[in-house]
Automatic annotation (TrEMBL), chains A, B, C, D, E, F, G, H:
Residue intervals passing through the bilayer: none
Species assigned in the record: Blastococcus saxobsidens
Protein name (record): PurE domain-containing protein
Chain ranges of the PurE domain: 101-233
A single MF term (Gene Ontology): hydrolase activity
GO BP, one annotated term: 'de novo' IMP biosynthetic process
Source superkingdom: Bacteria
Pfam families (UniProt xref): AIRC
Amino acid sequence: MRQADLVSEPRTGHLGFARLDLDRERRTGTPEVVFAAGKTPAETVACLAGLLDGATGPEPFAWATRVDDATAAAVLERWPDAVVDAQARCALVGRPPEPVGEVLVLTAGTSDGPVAAEVAATLRACGVGCRRVDDVGVAGIHRVLSVAPDLAAADAVVVVAGMDGALPSVVAGLTDRLVVAVPTSVGYGAAFEGLAALLTMLTACAPGVLVVNIDNGFGAGVAAARIARSRQR
Amino acid sequence: MRQADLVSEPRTGHLGFARLDLDRERRTGTPEVVFAAGKTPAETVACLAGLLDGATGPEPFAWATRVDDATAAAVLERWPDAVVDAQARCALVGRPPEPVGEVLVLTAGTSDGPVAAEVAATLRACGVGCRRVDDVGVAGIHRVLSVAPDLAAADAVVVVAGMDGALPSVVAGLTDRLVVAVPTSVGYGAAFEGLAALLTMLTACAPGVLVVNIDNGFGAGVAAARIARSRQR
Amino acid sequence: MRQADLVSEPRTGHLGFARLDLDRERRTGTPEVVFAAGKTPAETVACLAGLLDGATGPEPFAWATRVDDATAAAVLERWPDAVVDAQARCALVGRPPEPVGEVLVLTAGTSDGPVAAEVAATLRACGVGCRRVDDVGVAGIHRVLSVAPDLAAADAVVVVAGMDGALPSVVAGLTDRLVVAVPTSVGYGAAFEGLAALLTMLTACAPGVLVVNIDNGFGAGVAAARIARSRQR
Amino acid sequence: MRQADLVSEPRTGHLGFARLDLDRERRTGTPEVVFAAGKTPAETVACLAGLLDGATGPEPFAWATRVDDATAAAVLERWPDAVVDAQARCALVGRPPEPVGEVLVLTAGTSDGPVAAEVAATLRACGVGCRRVDDVGVAGIHRVLSVAPDLAAADAVVVVAGMDGALPSVVAGLTDRLVVAVPTSVGYGAAFEGLAALLTMLTACAPGVLVVNIDNGFGAGVAAARIARSRQR
Amino acid sequence: MRQADLVSEPRTGHLGFARLDLDRERRTGTPEVVFAAGKTPAETVACLAGLLDGATGPEPFAWATRVDDATAAAVLERWPDAVVDAQARCALVGRPPEPVGEVLVLTAGTSDGPVAAEVAATLRACGVGCRRVDDVGVAGIHRVLSVAPDLAAADAVVVVAGMDGALPSVVAGLTDRLVVAVPTSVGYGAAFEGLAALLTMLTACAPGVLVVNIDNGFGAGVAAARIARSRQR
Amino acid sequence: MRQADLVSEPRTGHLGFARLDLDRERRTGTPEVVFAAGKTPAETVACLAGLLDGATGPEPFAWATRVDDATAAAVLERWPDAVVDAQARCALVGRPPEPVGEVLVLTAGTSDGPVAAEVAATLRACGVGCRRVDDVGVAGIHRVLSVAPDLAAADAVVVVAGMDGALPSVVAGLTDRLVVAVPTSVGYGAAFEGLAALLTMLTACAPGVLVVNIDNGFGAGVAAARIARSRQR
Amino acid sequence: MRQADLVSEPRTGHLGFARLDLDRERRTGTPEVVFAAGKTPAETVACLAGLLDGATGPEPFAWATRVDDATAAAVLERWPDAVVDAQARCALVGRPPEPVGEVLVLTAGTSDGPVAAEVAATLRACGVGCRRVDDVGVAGIHRVLSVAPDLAAADAVVVVAGMDGALPSVVAGLTDRLVVAVPTSVGYGAAFEGLAALLTMLTACAPGVLVVNIDNGFGAGVAAARIARSRQR
Amino acid sequence: MRQADLVSEPRTGHLGFARLDLDRERRTGTPEVVFAAGKTPAETVACLAGLLDGATGPEPFAWATRVDDATAAAVLERWPDAVVDAQARCALVGRPPEPVGEVLVLTAGTSDGPVAAEVAATLRACGVGCRRVDDVGVAGIHRVLSVAPDLAAADAVVVVAGMDGALPSVVAGLTDRLVVAVPTSVGYGAAFEGLAALLTMLTACAPGVLVVNIDNGFGAGVAAARIARSRQR
């Protein structure tokens, strides 16, 4: 990329209330996504349509995260073939890229499921394979140890955990893969809406743990996809 | 204990600046201790002397925690036979009770040593045996698993850990013994002087974990001693 | 327990979304519990059924905490003989072990009742006796002093308190029993959803106080049950 | 006081770097004090001199708080008859008013002594009597109960406590006197430099507790003096 | 009060879920109050009835704070003559003591009204007169200055303020009366539910400011009543 | 302004529950506004009416912020010609001053729109022109660079941003105009309701950034209006 | 400024460890400053020399903030004519622009002096006049009112205050000038190193208050200078 | 890796106070490191010696982080050929692996240098190439844009930034490489020892940003090395 490209004539789709970054995929390898929280259903639909219109590849594709029920309905009304994952709160319109590689997604408990689902949906949107193993928290350490073969087979590992957030520390000590840790807001009291898990992961005693925001399955998915895709090249 | 005992004629040693609770051992099973932080060396020596004077058993014994170098010197000048543990910052004057039972004290890393030493000194002062296994953090999970036989042999377990504080969650999933968790101020940045470890332990996903204040080896030792002594009765 | 047991062939019940730890009771002495928060009623019922199916003792028993109304109804529809404690938000299916020993459960105020009820339900599920004395906050110190005989008779003491959380400090100065302190989210303003009581208990000036998470009646109950059962052996 | 007085010709002593409020005693009943922290010794001496110069009563008097060793020396060099209380870090120059009434000052532990000393020095400066009883923390509740006669004799009560800060809650349940609670920065870990005690006192379950800033013996002393003086009128 | 009184035969009304402190008024000069938050309407009514039954004076009186609509209705159904102040969320049953003295209650803004109303209701329940002046925040400093005559006439001053909580600092510089400061949860963003105002008041640059918990109109009212009553003796 | 003006006969409109500061515009150049949060619709209408009654200029004008639906309806019922901006939650009654100058209002994302709308409404009420450019967050830096011509044309710049709050740092490095930064509560997890953006803006590495409270579009608008008007003089 | 200017050939002085932004004054109107904290004396001297070398105007000028004693000495050794303000910790080398306009700088107390001195030094470096009035805290409100004539004469007002940080709220209610509020870390306990003052200022009940980081006299000075210079054009 | 390997006969070097994890490199691809903080110089030397003794490859190599002056001297005394990087506080003994690939390390300001140096030393120890570009903070956005060619050439990017921590948000919008963000404790006041930068990075509006602990150059280096090495395979 030449530096001049950055400011001369970026391809931007102006919608008045929003400015679609049609150029993002070329720059960052990740397609622009519509963050539906704080947008009306109509605004989200308009953004998705704008992204589809601006797409330059052979298979138009656009997607949105943090989609509530009303927005999901609006998307499905406009594009009946769209795929909406209710647990992940994601909507995919058109055909995502063929998946390459594989990211292992672990959860510490059942309640971490929705965030793991967002990771999985993001991987699908980014064209990367996903393998999930759920409910392997450290309170039953044999459950963690049993995923060792899966660790060896993965391009990267995403660990989703709330409460004490201890799982990434253990996993990172068992593998040479990068571990992307996602704290969740699961827990009560001194969990402080995910703060406890966040601090645990930031201070993990095993190196190789990288952390994203609380409940940010999207960010973890994008990062893991970048790793997986670059290894598959 | 009759209720009236609580307020009628408690045996209290007044030193002007302090009020020794000579009756504490009868009430709580744990001898009064001198918390030397915030006291001058002379005040700590005076408190120890007051406790020795007020002792009613056959073997006078008194002790102090948070003893700095100057106080240690003052104690040793007054009682040359005193035992001062520099790492634990504890001073024991006279003969502690014969140890019964055994508490297992685990540390996650080498830097947690001073707090574990305070636990050990407290156990000795309370007349309970102690077995230490150090540096078994979860980043090398086989190190944790290797202590399983020790867990089975202990009356109670004290786990001392800083940084992510994840060790108690794993240990409590491996044993039916009570796990007393001590967060330490070891770590930097988002460890926030022990806050991260404290929150991790409070939100441990394995039940049976009980928590004391950051760096509070004394409190953990007293509690573990109570458990051990009550099991030995 | 031999170390090899930990990883070879653990008895795990896979339900897809959850991985039941059927082996937990053998390892930790405490039966696996279903944490119903964040699970659908159907998921909780499925977990309970899985635990009952996997039970190896003569009296099948399983239980769940943080049960809301919908889940309670689903449990009762499946097992009409189940016992649901609405205040404690716990459901017990089958026959819990016969109670041994006795844990004293104190509350500082009437509003701490639901958490104390969770402690009591947990003790019942773990097969330990329970004696409750409510509303003995330190603002009327004679109320605290009046429980001295109960303290002497208990195997362990659980103190449940919100607002200033001062009760455990006073109780621990009156007894040689272990005091498990449960901060509650009762209070407003600077109580900060239980943070004030939590900090008070962690910094209690009387040793022998061990702390669990805010509103964590379950954790306190499990810990107290371990103490009581080990003393009764 | 007429409203116009407030802005017309207040008696202010300008020192360049400071603006002495010579009128404060008339308005608020409390003489202006020099807060020496953040001032050089020379600045503190200049402020004290300015206050003495501006004094209108028969007995010139001025005083300073948070006086360090260098400032104390400078004060004593200028006014050899000044009274400097090293523990309280206060310096009194000239003759304070004759004491009336009596405020009871309680401390929970020996380490709270310096703050209690600042309370006592403030009472002396404000012309109010002081009675101190130290080291009556709630871990030995009989020590608290033994001060009941002192409570009944006092015009107001100041309670100084660090760590769990539980003492004011108990005291306020025993008396009809106003309880001014001073949290201290004594303690470690989750005491968070006095935050734990501050929150405990703010959420005290007994009404009649009023709180000042951490370690603010000066503020507590001024408030208690106002109460005492108004009762003696 | 003799010390023995404290533990011998306190007059306590046991209701099972609650333990009424019928002796509180004798000890502390303030009648026991029912804190209705966290109680069912029936429980609050039962507590009020218990207090009325236990009353020993000629005019039975009992009251409750934090009364919601359902509880208010239950109280009025049982005692049609009860007085319920909807803004203050207080219910008074029977005849409160004749008011003596006068407390000045200031609010910084209109939104602080409900907390000020709780102060006023508490003063009425404690038998103290009340004068309110509303909406005198420091953004229009002439509004503050205009209350100077009211300050001079009051026995004590209660200042209720949210947002920046700056009003007590200004008021305390204008009067020799004790200023009881009540931070409110009014405000948004960095007001952090009253934390900003709380910290402002604790660090007020004018001495003589004493602080209660956020939104704690009850505590401020009790304290101010004690001051006023003691001045009227 | 002479000093005496400040306290002599301020023109204040007393409404019982509120004290309108009719004199504010003369003193501060900004007309008094009604903060409708925490007021009933009737109270807000009464305040607006009082301001209109007290207006001395040729064109009566009054306005309110934080207007919810019920209040908006009440305002429109009373003054059918009022302008209510639903996104900004502002109501303007009468004719605001003719706009002079121009303030540039930037948002980082679509979700920051409501706060930017409050800025715009405030500018209109204060008689200053407004130019908005939305959705120019730093993740697509060319979007920021493209506003350089707008920066040069503005009297002041208001930057509204949630999440990482990084936009003001970049903008302030591109212009000599004052940058008023408004953190918004947009974001989740470690955004902590706007705290992350607030801290980012306070620590901006480019000087010339001034910060207001989270979501405080009103405060930013008033400040920017003052700058613009003073430049146009 | 044309957009292309921003990226084409910026004039940057590379020093290896630092990249001087010689172009900053053209872009932002404020000359680049050397932030000496975290730099060795030699590095600061090298940066200053680089800025002087790169200066294009007739009067070379460069300056540094947060200069400690060692750095001050190094600067004076290199440039004996440099002006070092020890209280402000600023060093000015060469001749700053002739001052235009006037900014009023107020402090609440004497201890806020060093931060106010940094404001003043920054104004001098930016070529703006400064008038300081010190020690006008709200505890003596007449002191605040007495600055009214100064407010009217100023182009902008900077208010520096620690502890409760209440002064900007009062000042902003008295003037139509922009008020730049600087919280300082003066105070103890609940002042939390300036956090209390920061929150107070962010939630100021008077509009027109803009806030900078704690102790950030530099940032306040730059902002005030921009306002003053733009008014003088 | 077979699961049984994890617990059967791990190669552990016991030093009494520490338990060297000689097997870590086989499991995780990263050689064990000695964290020297909290260890005596002798302990660090003993750990390094133990690692060198346990090394199985042809070129023995061991290293330590957080090395203070005394420890550096002890290392150099024992191994005169060791390489000690004073800014990075790292010591490398023996010959690190030949570097493959290249990681780009950016700093926002000069003061972030020590943390970037730790990243660089870690990369060298892990056998990965490093390219540093310093002082490219967003306040001069052209400096950031000028690194675009470097971004395209790198295997991964590490961004080190204190104060507002805004740099990773901008960088991640310009590249498809993974961005590892390291907040530093550089800054003052509301930077809160790196908390502001940490929160900014966690809430970065550009996906692909992964975060490590404050000042944790080691963790960032290990993670970036894993990415680079996996791309080079």
